Amino acid sequence: MSKPLISALAQFAAATAGRNMTKAAYVAVGVGVLSMVLLTDNRANEARGWVHGLLWACLVYFVFEWVVRLRHMARTGRLALYMSSSAGIVDAIGALAVPAALVLGVEPKTAWLLSVLWVLKVVPGIPGLRQLRRVLVLESGPLVSVLVIFLMVVFLASVAEYFLERDVQPQTFGSVPAALWWAVVTLTTTGYGDVVPVTPLGRIVAALVMISGLGVFGLWTGILATGFAAETRRDNFLKTWESVSKVPFFAALGPAAIADVTHMLRTMELPARTMIIRKGAQGDCMYFIAAGEVEVDLPGKKVQLGEGAFFGEMALLGNNMRGANVSTTKVSRLLVLDLVDFRVLMARHPDLAETIDAEAKRRALENK
Amino acid sequence: MSKPLISALAQFAAATAGRNMTKAAYVAVGVGVLSMVLLTDNRANEARGWVHGLLWACLVYFVFEWVVRLRHMARTGRLALYMSSSAGIVDAIGALAVPAALVLGVEPKTAWLLSVLWVLKVVPGIPGLRQLRRVLVLESGPLVSVLVIFLMVVFLASVAEYFLERDVQPQTFGSVPAALWWAVVTLTTTGYGDVVPVTPLGRIVAALVMISGLGVFGLWTGILATGFAAETRRDNFLKTWESVSKVPFFAALGPAAIADVTHMLRTMELPARTMIIRKGAQGDCMYFIAAGEVEVDLPGKKVQLGEGAFFGEMALLGNNMRGANVSTTKVSRLLVLDLVDFRVLMARHPDLAETIDAEAKRRALENK
Amino acid sequence: MSKPLISALAQFAAATAGRNMTKAAYVAVGVGVLSMVLLTDNRANEARGWVHGLLWACLVYFVFEWVVRLRHMARTGRLALYMSSSAGIVDAIGALAVPAALVLGVEPKTAWLLSVLWVLKVVPGIPGLRQLRRVLVLESGPLVSVLVIFLMVVFLASVAEYFLERDVQPQTFGSVPAALWWAVVTLTTTGYGDVVPVTPLGRIVAALVMISGLGVFGLWTGILATGFAAETRRDNFLKTWESVSKVPFFAALGPAAIADVTHMLRTMELPARTMIIRKGAQGDCMYFIAAGEVEVDLPGKKVQLGEGAFFGEMALLGNNMRGANVSTTKVSRLLVLDLVDFRVLMARHPDLAETIDAEAKRRALENK
Amino acid sequence: MSKPLISALAQFAAATAGRNMTKAAYVAVGVGVLSMVLLTDNRANEARGWVHGLLWACLVYFVFEWVVRLRHMARTGRLALYMSSSAGIVDAIGALAVPAALVLGVEPKTAWLLSVLWVLKVVPGIPGLRQLRRVLVLESGPLVSVLVIFLMVVFLASVAEYFLERDVQPQTFGSVPAALWWAVVTLTTTGYGDVVPVTPLGRIVAALVMISGLGVFGLWTGILATGFAAETRRDNFLKTWESVSKVPFFAALGPAAIADVTHMLRTMELPARTMIIRKGAQGDCMYFIAAGEVEVDLPGKKVQLGEGAFFGEMALLGNNMRGANVSTTKVSRLLVLDLVDFRVLMARHPDLAETIDAEAKRRALENK
């Protein structure tokens, strides 16, 4: 291959090796899956050639990506770890499933269906998935019992319906498996309507099943809501705690106060060159810089604020109108303090209030 | 045009220009959209003339409204701001969509369909929409991950069903797009029943999809419930804080106590001449007047209470029966203190308790 | 009429006049509505005579009930109040609707349908309805905005579908009203399947509508859950507060402590002769008697405990096994203190702990 | 029978008698119910012999189990208690239902359907069922009122629909019972589509019913979510309290502090030889041993930690990377302290902080 191409590949490889999902990968997944979908649609017959091309391209991409990662991991001696990790397994499947099927002589149209497995590659990239998993784990006890109740209702109801309906409509309720199908469709309130009881008793049983359906829904949601509330609180705390400890402004406070503060702050990750405060807008929160840098666009001059500095406090000290544009200059992590909590915090820690007042006055003078 | 008409228009224009939605506008939206709906119904053929008339009237109204606003904004030099604001865009669409379509030679029946866009004009008028938006923004992380999970289930399930059902019922499951349609209809538990798996395996997959549907529901709701609880708390606090600070009665308290109080009070906006307390009714809260004026209808005389005054405290000091009718004389903002919180508050701040007792006694004597 | 009958009627009248719903009334509602239902079913033709008899009986009952109440209210001079109250209106409807219809010459089968209005009579009897209403009122703001969003989605979606589907299936999507029907059926995830989009674009729009459906569900529930949590807390507090103040045991405490205690206790209304504690059962709460009387069934003798006394404390002081049967002798209101809160309470108010210990010891000795 | 068989049976009987559900029982339930399901399916005709065999085997098992338990209970003098307990009744049903039916001359295919009742045997084994029941009991008030509202809507709506639709589609809306069926199917948003209103008015009523359906859902879930949150809190507290009191480490603390700690800890039951901490993993919690023993796998040597000891504290004292594998050596109960709460706890009880620091240092040195 020609030099530039090689170097380009090398560069690309480097990018790929490290991070979990490159933009390219997302594109590949999207294109690949959609092509697979098209492939099965007769209306797209004339474009079949193109579609196959796209599929092959995606496949090549994923194989390449996988190989690069294997090489990278091998070098850094984490090969075993990677191959046993979920990411590694997903990559392997993405790269091997379709070829394997083709090699094993599955007819292509079917083999390509396996490319739907590529969607699994986005899983690690889902924001807050860890959080969801934790909720499911912590609440697994009650969730399982709801599921068991669900299954019991399904079995009891389907046998009852089978007994009541089998003679009237043998073609639909002719066996318990058929009745089971009806029960699931009904208890989840999906209600296809392909299998419907017609006898009075059968309908009464069905009505009870539907109402239980509401109950199952309710319990399920209630459990998840409870778990989620607890998890959110926990998650924010962890994210915020270390950031707070980095802000000298809070260093003065004792651990109790820090725990206090941490419960109140919200973390915010921002890319570079993002407008945080727009001049003239309504303001109801102030910001502490945990990491990165922001630029305050004052009349005449621009002021940089670095790690540990704070801004937007004016909005909380009486005048709600934002006085200047503020935007990040690099990727930054900010801690947001809502007006609500600001008030409470100031009330509990007058010393903080003074520090902020003083700083605010200083700036006001300076910017005269 | 004749003088009176012009002046009437001028007056109307003034009313329109300022506020976001006049009553007239709401009527126009309602009438317009309903006429559009009727227009498409053959049972309304004979009334077609009238319906067209109504539609044209509404259109004229919206164009007029838009022009008036543009003029108003131009004068006050906020034209650019207005035209780039969502309200401005919605107004423009409402005024131009249908005419544009007609001019471009779209056949009328279709062109008028665009008048459904008029419903967008009510959006800014929706109470608590800001609150909902905030919840969606704050919880976007988890919500997006649920959505991604939703899509993954849809894709995996539909390919599986396509593979299992395509030979048995090629007309419905003949392509993955068709299977996708089935998957969405099923996972949202809508269950039209137009596409239903019939093979045993296909039905097992379907059952799993339905149960995941419950899960998606549950997570979704859990997340929103959590976010909403936090948002409500925050919102009430902000609304109440400034009102509280206006009530001299609380001026005595330190900031910590005010934060306390604020957490307990609930704000209530009332139009003029509204009955707040009905004599003889059960009472379980007292009121502070943050803005406006109320009139206490005592035997023999009427007493006015202005900003900063409080009333209804008797109900919290033992006798639950309301002693007199109380109603607003002008638009007022009241702070409501529930019996629950009253008790706690009094316990924490005995001085407040005394003030209220004293005032209550004074009034009791006075109204002897 | 014969004397006994008259006196019986008088007695019955007395019972009826006062309370809102007598058992008899519930029975009448049930019988009446079911008869009405049967009346419309051809399978019940031969029993038509009986059914009519029952219906007439119920009607007579309700008319009688209404007259008695009118008389009672007139005597106690609350006639106007009663007739304008919801209960009064419901009674009037229950008594007059059917006769009025019959008099106006509506054919009987239809006239009797109005007897379904009798179900309205149970409304005042629903437990916790007040609570539900309060939640709906307090959260009305957000709920309305969700409803408005719901309607907007319905209108926009139905016009879009009408535009996309009218040519393909004119019989189902031939007019916007038809499309509106489809939109409501879909957005509520009911999905009858009588009207289903078939064009690719139409199905994509439909998919979006279904997913919005989940969103609407989620928001709706989130709002109600939030409101309900707040309401429950408030409600328990009110119910409990006055009871607590009646228990001498807590009289010692200052108001702050009482607020504390009140937050922890749960009220429980019990009929006479109800078993509260079963000997040998696991116990994790203690009871205070706010009103009524209980009987402790000790070996050899029975001990009565009256208002203000407490029992079941042993379970919280180490030995979890209940030592004796305890049951109410008359209708009683008990305050339940869970182990959880007991621990916290004892920690905060050591004096209480001592009182309870002392009493427990005394009893232990006594029952030696 | 031969000796070994008898002894085997005896052994098995012993195992069965005591515990509620042996693994064998779960297997029997699964096999039995599935066989019953198969029996009704014509596709399984050729395997009918086998299926019958399995069913008889399960039946014999359950009868045997029941007899063994009866004998066991009789010996321990708890026969009456057992036979009146839910478990006893379920066992009796499981053992007698099918034989009774067969004896009474019900044709076999139908008689065997009763074996679905075997699923009831798993109920006692459901985790967290007690918790669910408690929620349903505590919230029964509001839940019942929602149910009543549900029924009222159903009755009013179905009569209305019957009135509006009976003439247009007499075969589906020909009687109120039929309309009731429609109402339930619609209000639960199941929507089979077998009965659908077609008149404009009928559809408007239906739309209202569907929207009420969302409301019912929402209320239901809101109530359950609220109740569940309260119950979870209560449950964890009880589980944890006694464990905490067993940990000498907390003995120093006063009751108030213990209540504090208890609110923060989470209990975790673990089987023997379970990996708790994996070396190199991210750690965000520490563990206290309430019962059992764990083994820390340090370089060179293995250290056992017994009841009352704690581990994993390093993760909370700065270095997040777990330093060693830790696994249980016997069945153990651990108390988990999340980083969140650890911080708060240390802030409130500095003495605890010191103890932990000291211990941590000691270990660090030791493992040098």
Automatic annotation (TrEMBL), chains A, B, C, D:
<keyword id="KW-0633">Potassium transport</keyword>
<keyword id="KW-0406">Ion transport</keyword>
<keyword id="KW-0547">Nucleotide-binding</keyword>
<dbReference type="InterPro" id="IPR018490">
    <property type="entry name" value="cNMP-bd_dom_sf"/>
</dbReference>
<comment type="subunit">
    <text>Homotetramer.</text>
</comment>
<dbReference type="InterPro" id="IPR014710">
    <property type="entry name" value="RmlC-like_jellyroll"/>
</dbReference>
<keyword id="KW-0813">Transport</keyword>
<keyword id="KW-0407">Ion channel</keyword>
<feature type="transmembrane region" description="Helical">
    <location>
        <begin position="80"/>
        <end position="104"/>
    </location>
</feature>
<feature type="transmembrane region" description="Helical">
    <location>
        <begin position="48"/>
        <end position="68"/>
    </location>
</feature>
<keyword id="KW-1071">Ligand-gated ion channel</keyword>
<protein>
    <recommendedName>
        <fullName>pH-gated potassium channel KcsA</fullName>
    </recommendedName>
</protein>
<feature type="transmembrane region" description="Helical">
    <location>
        <begin position="141"/>
        <end position="160"/>
    </location>
</feature>
<dbReference type="GO" id="GO:0030552">
    <property type="term" value="F:cAMP binding"/>
</dbReference>
<feature type="transmembrane region" description="Helical">
    <location>
        <begin position="110"/>
        <end position="129"/>
    </location>
</feature>
<feature type="transmembrane region" description="Helical">
    <location>
        <begin position="204"/>
        <end position="227"/>
    </location>
</feature>
<dbReference type="GO" id="GO:0005249">
    <property type="term" value="F:voltage-gated potassium channel activity"/>
</dbReference>
<keyword id="KW-1003">Cell membrane</keyword>
<dbReference type="InterPro" id="IPR000595">
    <property type="entry name" value="cNMP-bd_dom"/>
</dbReference>
<feature type="transmembrane region" description="Helical">
    <location>
        <begin position="172"/>
        <end position="192"/>
    </location>
</feature>
<keyword id="KW-0630">Potassium</keyword>
<keyword id="KW-0472">Membrane</keyword>
<dbReference type="Pfam" id="PF00027">
    <property type="entry name" value="cNMP_binding"/>
</dbReference>
<dbReference type="GO" id="GO:0001508">
    <property type="term" value="P:action potential"/>
</dbReference>
<keyword id="KW-1133">Transmembrane helix</keyword>
<keyword id="KW-0812">Transmembrane</keyword>
<dbReference type="InterPro" id="IPR005821">
    <property type="entry name" value="Ion_trans_dom"/>
</dbReference>
<comment type="function">
    <text>Cyclic nucleotide-regulated potassium channel activated by cAMP.</text>
</comment>
<keyword id="KW-0116">cAMP-binding</keyword>
<dbReference type="InterPro" id="IPR018488">
    <property type="entry name" value="cNMP-bd_CS"/>
</dbReference>
<keyword id="KW-0631">Potassium channel</keyword>
<dbReference type="Pfam" id="PF00520">
    <property type="entry name" value="Ion_trans"/>
</dbReference>
<comment type="similarity">
    <text>Belongs to the potassium channel family.</text>
</comment>
<keyword id="KW-0114">cAMP</keyword>
<dbReference type="GO" id="GO:0008076">
    <property type="term" value="C:voltage-gated potassium channel complex"/>
</dbReference>
<feature type="domain" description="Cyclic nucleotide-binding">
    <location>
        <begin position="249"/>
        <end position="363"/>
    </location>
</feature>
<dbReference type="InterPro" id="IPR028325">
    <property type="entry name" value="VG_K_chnl"/>
</dbReference>
